[in-house]
Amino acid sequence: xxxxxxxxxEVVVPGQELAFSMDYLPTGGAFRxxxxxxxxxxxxxxxxxxxxxxxxxxGKYIPKKNDIVIGKIVNMSFSNWFVDIGCxxxxxxxxxxxxxxxxKGADLAQYYSFGDLIAAKIxxxxxxxxxxxxxxxxxxxxxxxxxxxxxxxxxxxxxxKQGSMITMIKExxxxxxxxxxxxxxxxxxxxxxxxLASKAIKMIEENAHMEGLTDKVKGxxxxxxxxxxxxxx
Amino acid sequence: xxxxxxxxxxFDELRPISAKTGIIKRADGSAMFKIGxxxxxxxxxxxxxxxxxxxxxxxxxxxxxxxNMISFSGSGERVRPGPTRRSREISLVMEKALMPVLDLSDxxxxxxxxxxxxxxxxxxxxxAGITAAAMALADAGIPMKDLVSSVSVGLxxxxxxxxxxxxxxxxxxxxGSVDIPIAMTPRTNEITLLQLDGKISKxxxxxxxxxxxxxxxxxxxxxxxxxxxDYSLGVKNE
Lengths: 233, 238
Hints:
By secondary structure, chain A is of the alpha+beta class. Chain A has helices at residues 155-159, 164-173, 191-206, 213-232; strands spanning 3-4, 11-12, 17-20, 25-26, 30-33, 36-39, 43-48, 51-56, 68-76, 80-84, 91-94, 117-126, 129-133, 141-142, 146-149, 176-179, 184-188. Chain A has 3 domains: 7-56, CATH 2.40.50.100; 68-142, CATH 2.40.50.140; 146-228, K Homology domain, type 1 (Ribosomal Protein S8, Chain: A, domain 1, 2-Layer Sandwich). In chain A, helix 2 (164-173) runs parallel beside helix 4 and helix 3 (191-206) packs antiparallel against helix 4 (213-232). In chain B, helix 1 (85-98) crosses helix 2 and helix 2 (125-139) packs parallel to helix 4.
């Protein structure tokens, strides 16, 4: 294999040379120029066999097909809702794509109104227009609970390997949770559990680049629960 | 003949530099760049939807810069509150200096706003502004082919110097002073900004640009360090 100029999990800046070889292939956050691979983002290098990518540390959400997102209704027309999903362009949800059947000509505000939060799936993305659908199990209007915002690039850490992290938080705190790929997390449970869950998620966001995070979060929740228990006695 | 610099620097020596990123919490990306007595703050907002709508480009996002000297930042002709002819021009020049490294095809119909505020102004404000803006753009997670580093070079009384301060810029003995702000991409060595104020021979200009290239590279090192600093600290604490 050719020359690798960086280590795995190193912080790199845009324009930094990552490898000097044709043996490696650039994927997300990196590009090739002649025989060099160059980073295009501020982020952490991830080397997987021959593939080099840069995981961004910050940045707005870029919509991808089949992503589950949490959005807020910001506008309505005769047959569509316009949804803010945290990227520059508004997403469109047509009334035929909702989870329930809606008659033609019905008043859409009766179903979802301004400021309502919904979980939806991205159906299609074409140049600046994003089409949403809710015809999928689990996608619905989010009625109670709370929403917290995190950086979208840190969503994989919140979910964990095969959902390990999120399942752990759900089970330990007895909460219902849903994580949108756009970095919005919905939590529903008892008020003190909700608070604790949001603290745990903020902790994951801040320490996303560390290893062994699941154990750390587990310890954190146990600790906090103990403190709460003492107060209640 | 200008033999010794007013602040005792070597002819190819920069003023003391410091840089920091992530200083404005509410912005998507931000940076501070300080060179000598000049302090520039840059804040990046976006990509966000662009209004009025007729300015939107369905092909790719656009960049909008705003350069402003804060009214308490210095004295003299240049510092006036509110938008001026000068600040309008420098905003445009900054846009053109930063655009070649940006790839905004992922953000159709969107705008990236860059606000550069000068807290303290000595000289080389547009250079400090561009340097800070490049760092803030990287901090905001916007895809870039390279960073941009900027410095001014010039001729003071027929001697080539790097990074003029205000005193040198106003030098009037002999042939006076020539000020050449340049901005470069440090990896590909492309010049994205080149302005010239004064009179200079071709040979001297090339010589000055060579010195500027070296100085830009020094600034690039500082930018790189500042961008990485924020995140490597967390690793150390572990």
